[in-house]
Amino acid sequence: MTLDVSDMWGLAGKSIVVMGAGGGGIGSAICRHLGNAGATIVAADIDADKLAICTDDLEANGISHIGLLADGRDKDAVADVVERACSLAPLRGSVQVAGGMWPPQWAPFVSEDAAFDDVMALNFGSTVNTVRAVGRKLVEQGNGGSIVNIATVSALNAMPYGSAYAAAKAAVLSLTRSLAVEWGSRQIRLNAVAPGSIATPKSASTRKPGDTDGNDLEVIPMRRRGTSDDIASAVLFMMSDLANYVTGQVLCVDGGTSIRPAVNDRDELPVFVHNEELRARLADW
Asked: One Pfam family of this protein, by short name (predicted)?
């Protein structure tokens, strides 16, 4: 018997809001994965040109969708996006991708950092607005649903000079866990995906032209940077019926970065192991 993939995911005939869909990075990949699994995608972004990159891709792949310009920090704009989604098909839930921090916003915490509040508003405030608007509709529908928030592994440990971003995403994780309990009896699941180092058009802003990963990969156990599709696959699982009994969880998609011991060297041996015979024996497998 041939299994219908759409039936396996449980997303066919449902609408899903993706906030921060544009740009050809993580949000765009999430839209494509969820759309290929049968969902109708409501792709929202603040930037018209970036949104077009996403919607053009969805169009080329024959995915049912609409694209909407909206700022996740604007409660009314978010509410309008959710209403549009409900007008297309029963609402399954949402993915909150909008966020990040640009190089000019990196700063020592002791400085007069005017961007701190902006980073918090974009990464946490937009999540609050989206989750609240979507949650209200899911409660109204009475059929449960799924919400996936994009966090970062930095929310689980630290991010020097980027404390606003780490703190905002840590708040996202706390909100995700709290609402997973609060809304569990309504069969509304909330989970988070925490990316590590992911190669996207946005992440290229921290690199100089022609730059390569070089020694960067030494701190990633899998020795490669992640892709937008790596994150989208995790989101698809969390959004789908395959994760029907999963809620309040954080799935790190980071090639093992978050569990790598800080004392390991490039050979993944503790820096305090100096015995060459022992090092050779451990490395020779």
From this structure: adh_short_C2
Report, as residue numbers or ranges, the catalytic residues: 165
Condensed to tens digits (0 to 9), the pLDDT of residues 224-276 reads: 999 999 999 999 999 999 999 999 999 999 999 999 998 999 889 999 999 99
CA-to-CA distance for 246 and 244, rounded, in angstroms? 6
Cα 47 from Cα 70, distance rounded (Å)? 8
Are 8 and 242 in contact by the 8 Å Cβ rule? The answer is: yes
Evaluate the CA torsion angle 9, 228, 163, 121 in order and state its sign.
Answer: negative
> Looking at residue 272, what is its pLDDT?
93
Which parts of the chain have pLDDT scores under 50?
1, 3
What pLDDT was estimated at residue 7?
Answer: 74
Give the CB-side neighbour count of residue 113, counting CA atoms within 13 A. 20
Map tokens 């919607």 to a residue.
55
Spatial separation of the C-alpha atoms in residues 227 and 208, rounded to whole Å: 19
In this structure, the strands spanning 65-69 and 91-96 are unpaired
Pick from 146, 38, 31, 164: which is nearest to 97 by CA? 31
The CATH class, in words, for 5-254+264-283 is alpha beta
pLDDT at 213: 66
Q: How far apart are CA 73 and CA 162, in angstroms?
A: 20
DSSP-based three-state secondary structure for 87: helix
Annotate 133-145 with b (16+ C-beta within 10 A) or e (fewer): bbbebbeeeeebb
Q: Copy the structure tokens of residue 109.
A: 């915490």
Q: What's the CA gap between 172 and 68, in Å, rounded?
A: 24
Q: Is the pTM of this model over 0.70?
A: yes
> What whole-number distance in Å separates Cα of residue 40 and Cα of residue 44?
13
Per-residue pLDDT, 204:
61
